[in-house]
Known about the structure:
Layout: H1 6-10, H2 14-36, H3 41-48, H4 52-59, H5 68-77
Helix pairs in contact: 2-5, 3-4
Amino acid sequence: xxxxxxxxxxxxxxxxxxxxxxxxxxxxxxxxxxxxxxxxxxxxxxxxxxxxxxxxxxxxxxxxxxxxxxxxxxxxxxxxxxxxxxxxxx
Length: 90
């Protein structure tokens, strides 16, 4: 069976796969943004309204520890704008 993404193969439904794809994209963008910022991890965590262990979870890609809502909120605090594009499925 051919899958369009790893999430399609791993998740139990199209809905779960779609949610994970969006969360993964947000997490990757957040990781890149945080890594480019100057300062200590503790300082970065404070700026994002997170504890240092929570920021560590983000930087280590522990996606299951973050809801879509949480990632959108963190992205906003990081100075990122989140846009949603919806289109008909293939």
